[in-house]
Amino acid sequence: MRIILLGAPGAGKGTVAKLLTAYDGSVQISTGDILRGAVKAGSELGKKAKGYMERGELVPDSLIMEIMEARLQEPDCAKGFILDGFPRTIPQAEDLEKLLAKLKLKLDLVANLEVPRDVILDRLTTRRTCSNQDCQEIYNIKSKPPSPDGKCLKCGSPAIQRADETVEAITVRLETYNQKTAPLIGFYGKVGILKNVSSLSSEQSVKEITGAIKK
Hints:
With 215 residues, the protein is of the alpha/beta class. It has helices at residues 13-24, 31-41, 44-54, 61-72, 90-102, 117-125, 167-181, 183-191, 202-214; strands spanning 2-7, 27-30, 81-84, 109-114, 127-130, 138-140, 159-160, 194-198. The strands form two sheets. Strands 2-3-1-4-8 form a five-stranded parallel sheet. Strand 5 (127-130) and strand 6 form a beta hairpin. It is globular and about 50 Å long. The mean pLDDT is 91.
């Protein structure tokens, strides 16, 4: 399958993407992952991206698209791909359309994961992340808690609340999403490949998405 997952922060895109990869072997691709991968590999594109990232600047869309083009042509994408949190803006979506046409690839579906605001706030404010950069296991103090003393169950490092997962920070992130990314719902709705999916249950979301693709 070749799909895009849209949804506000905390909508469950990462969890749904992982479940979908198990469904048919498609690979999960997020902008952050491919940028970090390119930097780690030391490619020419990675070196360019690293400069922006080290200066705390946003990596330009043109460079992100070059890295995305290289990523989509890697062998593991032959079975399909799940774009997790990309594109984020209308210009990125337009650039992605051109790139897919160039690579002779076609999207099967754009799934918009819908979650009420109060659920998002609850999910993110109760989330904890392993502070070990090589682990970064995700926990939730309600549904999947770390150890009683707040340590990661995998590596023993402290499980922390990220600075962008306080109520104040989440409110800003949601406002940014509504301004910049939510317009993509209308964009893909006009194209005719959008499906709105309730994301209160990741398993149910996957069922709806795979069912829509089969049709």
